[in-house]
Amino acid sequence: MSDRTKRARHRRRGLRLLTVLILGSAAGPGAAERVVAQAAGGVTQEPATVLFSNATLVDGTGAPGHVGDLLIEGGRITASGAPGSIEAPSGAERRDLTGLVLAPGFIDIHNHSTTRLFDSPQATAQLAQGITTIVVGADGSSPWPISDYLGRIDELRPTVDVATLVGHGTVRSLVLGDDYRRTATDAEIADMTVRVEQGMTEGAFGLSSGLEYDPGFYSSTGELIALARASAGRGGFYMSHLRDEEEGLLEAVDEAIRIGREAGLPVQISHIKAGNASVWGRAPDVLERIRRANEEGLDVTADQYPYAAWQSGLAIVVRSRMFSNPDSVAKGIAAAGGGSRLQIVAFEPEPELNGLRLDEIARRKEMTEVEAYMWIMENGGSGLIGHTMSDEDVDTFMASEWVMTASDGGVRSAHPRGAGTFPRVLGHYVRERGILTLERAVARATSMPARRLGLNDRGVLRAGARADLVIFDPERVVDRSTFDYGTRRAVGIESVWLGGVETWSDGEPTGARPGRAIRHMP
């Protein structure tokens, strides 16, 4: 830790103690009791009045950062300006952020904490990344009914705000049941359309699909266009886990763009990647398709996690779904680059195998890789981390103006992205490698997802915006999770605020839970 950062920390802590001593007389009746309660371990949910001074303000627009002050009151940003230019109200807390960056809270537009929030409402690994808003319901799988889920979130009051999409796979399962391995009829598509409209009316922000997964795998493009039109009719967008992120990558990108064009709505390509060696080096071709679509007048963007490995289920390796056919299994393993690139996770029958690669498991079991794969699938299958991506492609997508940051992880994720995504961008790709500027990295995590969601109250530091804030040390912020040793909290995020309530401070949750459900209003 730099001397500058140490001085800033000591200064902030000293000011907090000073606030406890003097706020009662300065802020009127009841204020001192609230602050003392916090100091003693109690928690207030009331928005604070705070003047942040001498911060490096990175406002989320991509504009150059600059040193300045920012004032929050009543859960909103009320003023920002040059150092010393803002007159704080009587009783305001003052925090000197010399050497630290103050930015809008990060918005994770692709998060899988859907149900796990109810067991872990503190969402500690999310707070440690600076996340203030998450969007669930991606990859075609969403809560249902949407209204019930959002109501439960309001009752839960987690540490983050929560929005959701309506899942294509979810409504397809509701209509087709177990008979989903086929093309849907016109009547079934009409039924699914009604359900998408219901989800949108109840507050979903758009339609998601997971076309590499059952049951979306069997759907036609026409089915998706029809359902996307239902989302478009309520002002939503279409987010897709593409039909193929590997050999058929370019065709899958074309399909997503076609759906947006014919349905008349924006498109978000989930966790953009070139998934295996067959398409390494094709990132520029993908981005060229996105560029042409935007020049045509469409609205197409993508999101990305900053790791060269993905997480899914072991079944995804065999695209034919013929898991007991040795030739099909061998073809899938070869396309991935061999068993050494396939790391098994969440295998319940023998947990001691979790974290090992398929080739290691094969040696332990005295099997071939094909036999080991088939044995795991016969015993219920497992999760999978696939180390099959190219760092060069990750860099290319990272530098693109069309790509924002999203974790594709969440509470208790086995993949490092669940705990490290946003700090890794700031630490590894900004500070260590210079792939992005700091300002561009912040915009990828704030104004870009806010624009995609149509949320005008967050994502930029401006007067009137919600006081969703993250304060971090640009010299120290970085992820600490690894594929070998699991997920650990990131470091360097000093403080997180949601609606003017501090939820994270000095490496720990404050205990405040001001989060709520966010409902899309067509």
Number of helices, where a helix is a run of at least 4 consecutive DSSP H or I residues: 16
Q: How would you describe the oligomerization state of the chains in this entry?
A: single chain
* Helix content estimate: 25-40%
The first-to-last residue Cα distance is: 47 Å
Described by the principal axes of the CA atoms, the overall outline is globular
User: For the report, how would you describe the main beta sheet?
Assistant: 9 strands, mixed
**By helix and strand content, what is the structural category?**
alpha/beta
Determine the mean pLDDT: 92
Strands, total number: 21
Any low-confidence stretches, pLDDT <50, length ≥5?
10-41
* Rg result: 24 Å
Sheet-strand content, in percent, reads: 15-25%
Describe what you observe in this structure.
This protein has 522 residues and is of the alpha/beta class. It has 16 helices and 21 strands. It has helices spanning 3-27, 31-39, 124-127, 146-156, 168-176, 186-201, 221-232, 249-263, 283-295, 326-335, 358-364, 369-378, 391-398, 417-432, 438-445, 447-453, and strands spanning 50-57, 66-73, 76-81, 93-96, 101-104, 106-108, 131-136, 161-164, 166-167, 206-210, 237-241, 267-269, 300-304, 310-313, 342-345, 383-386, 403-405, 469-472, 493-498, 501-505, 508-509. Helix 5 (168-176) crosses helix 6 (186-201) and helix 6 packs parallel to helix 7 (221-232).
